[in-house]
Structure formats: C-alpha cells, structure tokens
Amino acid sequence: MRTADIIADLANLAFLQLILILFLNFIFKNKIIKFLLMMLFAIFALFIHCYQGMTVVNLERGIIGDLSLSGLLFLSSWSIIYFTRSSIDLFDRRFCLIIVLTGLILYLSVLDIIPFDIYAFGYLPRSILLLIFLFCMLFLRLNYIFAIIWVIALIAFFVKLQNSVNLWDYLIDPILWLLCLYKLFIREHRQDIS
Amino acid sequence: MNNNFTKKHLATVAYILILCFTLALIYVKTPQITKAKFKLESYTREQNNFSYPIFESYIIPQPDFLRTSHSATFEVLDNGDLLAFWFAGSHEGKPDVKIWSSKFTKNHWTNAIVAISPQILSRQLSQYVNKVGNPVIYKAANGVLHLFVVSVGAIGGWSASNLEHIQSTDNGVTWKKPQKLILSPLLNMSTLVRTRAIPLDNGGFYLPIYQEMIYTYPELLSFDANGNFIQKIRATSKRGVLQPAVVPITLDSGYVFLRNKGYHNKILYMQYTKNGGLSWSKPRATNMSNRDSSIAVAILGSNKVEFQKNHISIYTKYPNINGRLLMVRNPSDRGKLVLSISDDGLYFRDIAVLEERAGREYSYPSIQVHNGLIDILYTDEREKIKHVRFNEAWLDKEANK
Questions:
Q1: Which of A11, A21, B193, B243 is the most exposed place for a label (fewest CB within 10 A)?
Q2: What pLDDT digit, counting tens, does each position of B354-401 carry?
C-alpha cells in the first residue's frame, strides 16, 4: 500500500472517529471507555471488509475522497488533547476565522462563484509561497500546533506524500473547514448567550 | 522566566528557519509556468492512396445483453489499427455499466470485451466506486496509452464524479493500476471528461475536462511527457458550457468549441488561444446551433510552415486556418448527425448527413484523421457504437454537391 493511500485512509478514519466521539459523548462520560471504543472502531473500520470487499474507510473514501494531511494531523492533535485533558486550545477564534475565510474563498472560486481560480495556483505554487509564509506566521501566533502542522504539510507536498499535486490539498480540506466553521459559530453563539 | 523566554524565541527562530527552508525547496522544485506549444499532427493528402471516394460503415459487435451503449472514444495505434472504448450496460449510470473495448484490425472490429468495471476500480483503488461513465483514450508521443474514465463513488450522480487515469505500455493489452486524479478541493467532486486529448510539442498533452457542480465550465488538464498530471487551466469565463472540443491550428494557436448545457441556448460558441492553451479568448458565436449535445472536431491539411505564416495577431483577428475544420454534431436534436466543414472556424456549412431518424439518437461523435482517412465513431440509436470511415475524395464529392 502506498504512503498516499495510508495517509488518506488515516485521515478518513480520523473523520469517522470525530463523528463517533461526538456520538459517544451523549452516552459515556468515562474517557477510557470512549478511548477503547475508538480503538475498536479503528480496527473495524480499517481492516474488516463489510460490503463488496470494502472496509468502512474504503466506502467513506468513495464518498468524500482524500482528506488533507493537515486535516489528519489536526484531528489527531485534537484527539490527543481531548484524551489527555490538556488545556491547549486548538480552536482559537482568529485561527478559525482565517481557516473559514480561506476555505470559503477557495471553494467559491472552484464553484465559479468567484471568477478567478485560486485553487489552480496550488499546482505550480511559486506565486502563493509568500502568502503561505504569512499564514504560517499568523498561525505561529494564534495556534502554534497548526503552524507546525502546516510546515509538515509543506514538507509532505515537497516529497509528494499525498495523491494530489496541488498544495491546497495538503493544507486544507472541507472537513477541517467545517470543523473550524462549527467551532467559530458555537463559540460566537456561546459568547452571545453569556 | 528568562530561560523560558529564550526557549520560546529559539523555538520560533527554528520554526521560521525550517519554514523558509521548506518554502525555498518548493520554490526551486516547482517549474515555472511556460507557454506550451501544440504538436500538429502531420496530415497530407498525398498519404491517401485513393483518389476515388471511399465511404464505409461498421457496427462494433458486442454482447446482446448490453441494452445501452454510449460515448465512444478511440485512438489510432502505430500499425493503423483503431482501439475503441465506450460505456455499456443496462442503463447509463447503473452499477452494471462497464467500459468496453474493441479493436479495429484488418477491416473488422473484434468482439467487445470488458476493459474497466466499477468492481475493478474499487479493488485497485481501495475505495468504493459505484459506477463508471465517459471514457477518453489518448496515445502519447512515447507510445503509452492513457485511458481516462469518469467514476462515481458511493453516492451521487455525475456531478459527484471523479476522474481515473489508467496507463498501458503495450497498446492496451495490460493496464497499470488506476490513479485517481485530484482535481477539486471540494471532496474532489464533479470532474468529467468526454473529448479527446491534444498533443503538445514537448511530448505532453492537454486533456479537456469540465466541471458540473453548480456552474458548468470547461478546463484543460496539462500532462508532461511522462504522463504525469501537472496543472489545470480554466478555459473560459462562460458558464453553462461543457465538453470542450479542442483543435490546434498552429504551434501556438488553437480553437475550442463548446457544447451548451440545456436547450435554452442554441448557439455553438468557440474560443481561441494564441499561447498554446494557457489563456483563451472570450467566447464567440459561430453560425451553428448546439442543443446540449457533444461535438467532435478535427483539422484537415495541417502544415506547420503555412500555419505560422498565416498567424494573425489576436488583437485584430483570430488565427486563420490554412486547411479545413471538420465537425460532427447534432444540429437540432439527437435524431440527426451531420458532418460540417469550415475554412475559418466561425462559419460552418453542413456537407453530409451521417444519420437522420426522428425520435432516435445518433450522438457523442469522436473523430480522428490519419493516413488520409477520416474515422468517426458515434452512438447509434443508443444501443450500439457505429464506425464510419471515409477519405478526402469522398469529402470533396460531398462538399461539391
């Protein structure tokens, strides 16, 4: 199995585990039980063929495709922080806002709602490297874990660790974008209530 | 505290150094966007040994249980044989639809065999593929065959489709493991292909594709000489057009003709490029109509020197053709398939009716010009794939009628 497929499988698994943990929060309070269930689910989703010789992760990849390495590392970091009860805040409001705005512009341009193709700059990305540098500097200030994640993603792009040849596909994906959008909205909403 | 302050700053400096080093590596490794040049396929009338008109037609034999066949694509092999692919099954979009293949050799088509199925793709890609659609075959300058197939995962219609890229180094006898092309940041959805690829002078090629998520628009995928996908170029600002049919007319210039989506817009639009496809002009209306039906275009009589000489500035006039453009299209509904000819890419005249029967479908043509012969494959009544072959003498006879 190629490294790109392993990364894609793990990223998809991380997304499934995110959904599972949201669901488990309604049932269990004990984090050890939740952790054990997550591990059991990981084994099932990665290795058990449940439909036409496909695993759950294979089926999910057939729907949402390959997620970004940044998404995988970010979801993994979130899981570690969640289970170790660390006080690190992965969802700084300004960080979430940057990701949401970047994703919004990127996705609107792909849908041809914005009349220039920002995604295309990611194929031969010389012209956006300065922008990426500025983003990393901002992340270093707002969310240093994500700043490190983006450097790892940049190295991965250099050695082409994923199936994509577009830099944006290493840096951001719709799941990461939705997660930041959700956190931004929830936090804003909670602040309004308080 | 002072110690912590130093550690934090050291970490920041280390981070910036690693970041700058990584960005520098990417900068050095990334090639600059350079102007591409088309490769003009050599065609001369003298290659045709027949001065008398030739017109032949064939039906590709396929199993009786295939109730629908559609969207044929073909390539001319080095020995002059034709290798065709199309999708067939119970109904378009059903999971039992597969990509079928046949070879035209010694003046007959071999029995169709399965080339690609959703099950084969699922197994080889390690991700679920529910259905397959339009294929496009292209033979690169190095002899490698590139087969592109539209596929859809577990859910959704064609607007949720991906593109699979499969290569063969032995003229289609065996195929390498498919590779899913990542072409959109939005879950890689909504990329389709239909029209033939265009060779570039550097051994690479352009594959025309189109997006169909909210707005429909065409793009070009650029591949290098080794068949690696490099970048994507948006071909137009016009929405509601798809299945771009590209035809190079000089090393730098080319035309693209665009199918309309839906029946509301009847005009067939064209655009031209002057820099090898990196950018395209605004759409211009031709004198032809198009009602949501695929078109195929080829050029007759290419000659590099003459083309260069006739090249006129894009700011005053679009590039001239020193030859004739052939187009196969449905002028109104899909019950009529005509062959049209043009000297300038804007004004076409119909010279032959290939098929006409009300209420039936003759559509999705593919065309190739080689060795003085013109081959066209198209969907025949949605049940079979038909092949017509003629020469330029027949074309002249029809044009002079």
A1: A21
A2: 999 988 999 999 999 988 899 999 999 999 999 999 998 898 888 887
For chain A, give the longest Cα–Cα distance.
51
CA distances (Å), origin B241, targets B11, B211, B263, B294: 52, 10, 12, 11
Contact assessment for residue B399 and residue B351, using Cβ atoms and an 8 Å cutoff = yes
Residue of B15, B22, B278 to mutate, testing the A interface (most A Cβ within 10 Å of its Cβ): B22
Measured distance CA(A176)–CA(A18) in Å, rounded: 11
Alpha carbon distance A134, A131 (integer Å): 5
How far, in Å, CA of B270 to CA of B241, rounded?
10
Please name the residues in contact with B349: beta carbons below 8 A apart, sequence gap of 6 or more.
B340, B341, B342
Mutate to test the interface with B, among A124, A142, A143, A178 (most CBs of B within 10 A): A124
Give this prediction's pTM: 0.92
Which SS3 state, helix, strand or coil, does residue B242 take? strand
Quote the minimal CA–CA distance from B156 to chain A in Å. Answer: 9
**Side-chain half-sphere of B66: how many Cα atoms within 13 Å?**
25
* Average of per-residue pLDDT values in chain A: 90
Whole-number mean pLDDT of chain B? 87
Cα–Cα dist B368/B134, whole Å = 18
* Distance set, CA B145 to CA A24, B78, B226, B375 (Å): 50, 11, 11, 19
- Does the structural domain B40-399 have CATH classification 3.40.640.10? no
**Tell me: the pLDDT tens digits for B124-139?**
998 899 999 999 999 9
Contacts of A168 in chain B (CB under 8 A): 185
